[in-house]
Each structure stands twice: as structure tokens, then as C-alpha cells.
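Render this sequence as a predicted structure.
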Amino acid sequence: MSVKQPRVIIFTTPTCTYCNALKRYLRQHKIKFKDVDISRDPRAARDVVRRTGQMGVPVVDIGGKIVIGFDRPKIDRLLGLQN
């Protein structure tokens, strides 16, 4: 029986190097995610600031748990990925 993947939403901007690295990493691990470009979505940008207290990206929402930045060990742990 396989474990269901938690919902993954990433908040990014097109010019963010770490955002692009995060997307590549998730794709390599076949993790489905919703990508929200906060440079085009002011409401999402305000939501990120409200939830994290900062304006930096990437921000990852994994099943309601927030990860600030491309924190690979924390992302791996929340997604159940092996190193």
C-alpha cells in the first residue's frame, strides 16, 4: 500500500535561482506540486508574508507545514524521501 503524497504548493518567482533548483529537485523525485508565482499574484505574496513573516522565496507548503527556502533535509523529511 503506497503512502499518499501530501499536497505541495511552492511559492516562487521566475528569477529566483533557488526556486528553479527546488522545482528541478521535486520533478526529479516525481513530486507533484502547484507552483504559485508571487510576482504575478499579489494576494499570494501577501499570504506568504502573513504565514512566514518575510518576503523571501522559495516557500514550500507541504501538507500545511511551511518550509522557508530550499531546505532539502526538511523537505525530504516532510515528503518521506530517502537521501
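Summary. Strands lie at 8-12, 34-37, 59-62, 65-68. The chain has a mean pLDDT of 93.
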